[in-house]
């Protein structure tokens, strides 16, 4: 009588062999990037060449065959590489801008929260060498809070939520 573990070994070996046969029959394409490094893939990319195929391909009117695919000139390949680099650069810039905006939004929210939670607001001036505080009038404090709320709306795109009572 076979033990369960012993029964799993032939099954695992069979599945592994089936997987390897599928990989061995795959097409292999070779292409060279803008740095001159060769790459190999089982999928066609612009400028790649079919270097190995062990199976016949049916002629489908919608899919171009390897001989029907246009060959890219070095100038065309450079144009594609430039466009990809430009898109990658734009994604990096967008990410950096989003990071800065998130930081500005956070700072504006913190400033607004402090302004609405404070009993009295003050300002420091360069005229006071001792660093004494000059307290704002009620009108100045209201204007400061309104500006802080507007800054949150500008930085975050939405006004801050109403304060919890």
Explain this structure to me?
The protein has 165 residues and is mostly helical. The protein is built from 3 helices and 5 strands; from the N terminus they run H-E-E-E-H-E-E-H. Strand 1 (28-32) and strand 2 (38-41) form a beta hairpin. Helix 2 (74-117) packs antiparallel against helix 3. The longest helix has 44 residues, at 74-117.
In summary, what is this structure?
By secondary structure, this protein is mainly α. It has helices spanning 4-24, 74-117, 138-156; strands at residues 28-32, 38-41, 49-52, 122-124, 133-135.
Core attributes:
165 residues, mainly alpha, three-stranded antiparallel β-sheet, two-stranded antiparallel sheet, 5 strands, 51% helix
What is the number of helical segments per DSSP (H or I, 4+ residues)? 3
Biggest sheet, spatial arrangement of strands: 2-1-3
Q: What does the average pLDDT come to? A: 78
Question: Rough shape?
Answer: elongated
Order of helices and strands: HEEEHEEH
Stretches where pLDDT is under 50 for at least 5 consecutive residues are none
Q: Rg to the nearest angstrom?
A: 33 Å
| Share of helical residues | 40-55%
Would you report the number of β strands? 5
* Sheet of most strands: 3 strands, antiparallel
N- and C-termini, Cα separation: 75 Å
Q: Which structural class matches the secondary elements?
A: mainly alpha
Strand content: 5-15%
Q: Multimeric state of these chains?
A: single chain
